[in-house]
Amino acid sequence: MRLVATCARGTEGAVRGELASLGMRHLRGARGAVTFEGRMEDGMRACLWSRTAMRILAPLSAFPCPDAAALYDGVRTVDWTEWLTVKTTLAVDATGTAPGLHHAGFVALKVKDGVVDSLRDALGARPDVDTRDPDVRIVVHLARGQAELSLDLSGAPLYRRGYRTAIQDAPLKETLAASILALGEAALDRPFLDPLCGSGTLAVEHALSARRIAPGIRRPFGFQRWPRYRGEWQSTWDRMKEEARVGALPRAPAPIRASDFSEDALDAARRNARAAGVEEDVAISLADARSVEPFGEGGTFCTNPPYGERIGGQPLQLAGFYRGLGEAARRFHGWSLLVLSGNLLLERNLGLRPEWTHRLWNGPLEVNLVRCRVP
Ligand SMILES: C[S@@+](CC[C@H](N)C(=O)[O-])C[C@H]1O[C@@H](n2cnc3c(N)ncnc32)[C@H](O)[C@@H]1O
Question: What CATH code would you report for 174-213+248-373?
């Protein structure tokens, strides 16, 4: 079957590379999604192991959708008794648009009507809707006059690893942090530093990768509540998780450091590292980013600097801060510098020539991932 990994715009390359390394085949990238082929078990494996994808979907049907009536009729051609009983709750999420179908709420309602009417005709009763915590989440995507109906294997989006207990200002999504590390090829067996760590997302994600800890090992997934799960997939899933547990390394192979000048940020980073099971791997300490010193060789200096308010917000102050950060980074001879920049002032003031820049979206913000080699 065809499966879909949805993702943030700009991270498709990271998702493709990751799915290829998981052995997924026939990978194709589109904006905000990568499709691949496999069995439902492969979708489950992608849920367990993908650090970069947002959701894993299993498409059930695609059909032309010129209007609401065609949408309802198309929904009714699917045999929903394979996926739902009258006791399973459902929710429908809608994305995209088609002519006359511009309101996600209305599109979701039409699909929900088609599903519950089909089940009522087949089973004599209607399942309940639970938009907050459904057993089965159905996704409808409208584009180019077509509707595609999918089941969402993930449940909560995959960036919810289950370890983030503490949030600081402007935290990165876990999936974006993992994409930055993958796109920037942060070496797992070399030292790592984030000197503006906030709640520690980059360092924690790096530690999880370095220890080969499956990002989904601590959380439940949507497919575990499907009626077919117990009979068909549970033992495979249990085995997959056991293999993941056995394969994790006891310690990260190289030192990982995270620092910040805010005690509150450090407190959040410590709590998150502990909840993720990597507190022994990430050394978290108080430091001004402009005074950090290198340790070890060939490491990655990877960070997401503030864009404004907290360091003054005035162009002159910002430029000064970024110059100071660049001076610190230039002491890390032989390291790679990986910076998520939302501000051109930063790129201009680092004093290093970028090897490449890559456009990403941090939520609604367009940002640049910049990689430099420190000579
Ligand atoms: C955008 S946040 C980083 C968010 C982080 N990537 C996360 O996912 O939580 C920037 C951080 O830089 C810290 N910071 C600002 N100026 C600093 C300085 N001179 N030295 C150390 N930390 C600083 C702030 O306290 C803040 O936590």
Answer: 3.40.50.150
